[in-house]
Amino acid sequence: MHLRTLHVRPVSKGGSGPSEYLFRPTNAKKEPRKTQPILLFGNPERFEKWVRASRSEHPYVSYVLSYKGEPAMPDQLTRQLIQQLYRQLLLGGIAEHRAYSMGVDHGDHEHGVILRHLLEPKMRRFQPYYHPIDKQIISDFQWLMNRRHGFQAPENPACHQLVSLAGKRFDGTHIAALLELREKLRRAEAAGKLASHEEFVRLLKADYASVEVTPHPKAEKGDQARVWITVGDGKDFEMLLKGPACALNFNCQVYRQMQNRNLETYQSFLADPLPLWQRFQEGLQRRRKRNQRFAALMDKQDQDTCFGMEDLHPDHHLIALPNKPTLGDQH
């Protein structure tokens, strides 16, 4: 399972409430959704009303809980519990009935939004997610949830890839070409011919008529790590690539050393999740202190030692430890 918050376009720049996107019959690629949107909780009309009444540029926070890639989708009760716990985490101790949220089922992922104004006369604003200080607790939640239910873990370095598809415009032809490229990179690395970004580009040029390196659309000036590469056959096929090997400063040896360190950290967590659980609890405590200015709106029942997150305690994890992951020929 993978979770993330999404950028919300400021209302002053043409943005609006989320209902139009969440309930439209096409996805981000403008393709018909395989599963038509289903309302999980909340009231779209009421949510739109509060968004229009807000004077904030970003009146709500948007998030996605994704189960793409899972061998089997979790059952509905499990998904409901995960939604409940994640909203509880974002609210930071504020009673759920004092804020307003809405969730939509899109099949293999669920999209949620939380209003940044609390339901009180003065419409006081709070911040459900502030990246510089909340990214760690969100990561810890994901690590614990994946171990709790035995989900695919994007935090597992053995699942990482040297190159992936970028953007939203790709189909089965692109996926097949990517898999072929990954196999070529595996063989090149094994032969010691993938030491740098320059060698990666040379491999691409051996197969494609055009290879163009461009900065990521959101990369800051001088950021050599956020780079996309467009390859094409000079006719009607183009493929947009991203990943560590695309970075201008890519060094395969350094990257693998870092991956091995990260793998040791992940294996240590699988063997003993208590240290991360304790850090997670400390993060929950800090979030509640941050929201004390809304003391009258806090959930008075959410004062136990686990802050309502006891289901994530390692004692409740159902997973039997998997086979020890190895980086091997994974990319």
Strand order of the largest sheet: 1-3-5-4-2
Q: Helix proportion of residues, in percent?
A: 25-40%
Task: Describe the oligomeric state of these chains in a short phrase.
Answer: single chain
Largest sheet: 5 strands, antiparallel
Briefly note the structural class of the backbone. Answer: alpha+beta
Output the number of helix runs: 8
Q: What count of structural domains? A: 2
Distance between the termini: 19 Å
Topology pattern, helix = H, strand = E: EHEHEHEEHEHHEEEHH
Counted beta strands: 9
How much is the radius of gyration in Å? 22 Å
Mean pLDDT: 89
Uncertain spans? 320-331
Report the portion of residues in β strands: 5-15%
Identify the overall geometry. globular
Describe the structure.
- The chain is an alpha+beta fold and 331 residues long.
- The protein folds into two domains: 2-156 and 271-316, no CATH class; 163-242, no CATH class.
- It is 35% helix and 14% strand.
- The protein has helices at residues 19-22, 44-53, 76-91, 131-149, 172-190, 197-207, 252-271, 274-290, and strands spanning 2-6, 38-41, 60-66, 101-105, 109-115, 164-165, 210-215, 227-232, 238-242.
- The strands form two sheets. The protein has a five-stranded antiparallel sheet with strand order 1-3-5-4-2, with helices on one face.
- Strand 8 and strand 9 (238-242) form a beta hairpin.
- Helix 4 packs across helix 8.
- The longest helix is centred in the C-terminal third of the chain and has 20 residues, at 252-271.
- The protein is globular.
- The protein starts with a strand and ends in a 41-residue tail after the last helix.
- Residues 320-331 have low confidence and may be disordered.
